[in-house]
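User: Fold this one for me? It's Carnitine O-octanoyltransferase.
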Amino acid sequence: VFNQADFEKMAEDVKKVKSRPEDKELLELYGLYKQATVGDNHIDKPGLFNPKADAKWEAWNSRKGRRSIFASAMAFKMIEFIQLHNFKKLVSSICHRKGLYKRTEEQISWSYELFQQEQFRRDLLFKSIFQSTSVSQLILNWSWETKVFFRESLITPPFGVNHHKVLMCNWKAVQYPNNSKTKRILKNKSSCLTLHVTYLRCLHFNWKHAIFSLTEEIRNLTEEQYMGKVAQHEKVLWKERQHTFEVLLCGNHILSPSEVIMQITYIRERCTSQPDGAGVSALTTEERTCWAKAREHLIELDPNNGAILEAIQSSLFIVSLDEARPFSTPENYTEMILQALTGDPTARWGDKSYNIICFADGTFGSNCDHAPYDAMVLVSMCYYIDQKLKASEGRWKGSVAAREIPPPEELVFTVDQKAQADIALAKQRYRESGRRELRCMWWVVDRAGRVFFLTRTEDFLLQPRFHSNACKHFGHTSCTNFIPQNATTRRFYHGRTETMRPCTLEALEWCKAMLDPSVNTETKRKCLLIAVAKHNKLMNEAQNGKGFDRHLLGLYLIAKGEGLPVPELYQDPAYSKSGGGGNFVLSTSLVGYTTVLGAVVPMVHHGYGFFYRIRDDRIVVSCTAWKSCPETDAEKLYQNLTTSFQEMLQLMTLSQL
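Assistant: Here's what I get for Carnitine O-octanoyltransferase.
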């Protein structure tokens, strides 16, 4: 029987350990950890629901005696680069033009305040995302901004539309922004560091505004609006129609699940009894210039169309009722990700920051504009929803009473022959460029996970394995400079991500050793340890704002924004070959240790998108590639990955690493 006093005593003893804990201590603590996560607390981080379990988790997690590190100002790093590249005078002039206060040489904090100015950040940072309007919105969204996530615990629902899961998922999604601003959800953390919650606000209310012949911009509601001083509503897309209803009534009271299901049922019955609508949402999947022209035409055709567009854009999020039934199992999510990425274009609004997709078999996915926030923000919300649904078994167990509330309002666009032709063309292009072109694979690697890697620093051992896999797949050892990994910088205010480049000389030496049959196990083990140590060091530096990719991006955008010649560095072929300018061939990312996983298309046509999550007993991997590229083969990449993984298991077992 678990004894709280014994657990606390052991946790306090281990806190004092300065070196690596012994295997016996780790095993004993892991046994206590398992006791802390059984029954009602059977989730990755039980503190999400139970304060007592939270105390157990924190005590267990503190076994290495790590201290909390508080985020500090990151201005000094940007200042160093600005001064190094003679941009100080330029930025000073921008400060003056933007109306900022004058700063002296000693008061160097001016650059930090400069980058905090909302309009300045939009002018520079967002211009990089939208500087090319010739790229299809489909490709742009997938390559850079769209993430698709699923909940594995909801993968085996009963056949048919599951109203209870739809309403519960909807209800929890509405609750999340309110709970995040009132600090009633678990803090986001990376290792022992608390991450800033600024981007949680960007999950809702955000949209991308297409402006013909002008730079696009991302818009969001003000802080006062976000804090609930305006009405909040959501949009439901089904049968090529758009409906809206208020989810926050007078007094900031969120609709109950019974009231939400009443609204959803009304929409379904209304759409079923009428023909399909115009399907205007398909236009948001178009190339940006085409969508901007079509948008202007709709507004010119009828001013009410402009009001409808504004209502959709300012909504909390989009609920997409999709009639597809993607066959998926805990070992194979391929069909679900393809449906979320290449499904019905009339059931997605491409410019919104969050589209929750409710499939007809009761499973869920999402298709989102990723520009306003990093992926882990969406992972946080999806995991929150998943755990709440699991705790309630996907059913509302409270009162079924419902208040008298206004029924949903249908938003009917006025369309003419030209608008109908634009919509038909958008649907055709979307379908031709989607399922026919995209290759997606989803694998589960059993017999490994957090338990196996408990004493082996988890991701730091997985990344070298990807290097070995890439060397085998591409046929040479020089390919490792193609591989990037994201490092979160959300410990800083307005921090997002930094590119961590694991393609080190140490990793290359280990890859060569693994490919050389004459090298013994002990030498391979030493090379692996050296590569892991270097990876760990670089990841910590990137998370602390000491990377260089984002700084180079900032300098590039300043030059472009002021009409200056682009520095020669950015035009050097070696810059692109090393991944600069978004040219990484094998893009990898760890998306956490939850039930949530995402997928993105490759950054280049001849590349791969490779993303993974680590569970207690397995590693789940998603891989994307383009069918039209003869150089890529997702299945072959998986086979090489499996071989590399088995070699890693053997090396770690024989060497007792």
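One thing worth pointing out: The chain has four domains: 4-61, 75-127, 136-436, 439-654.
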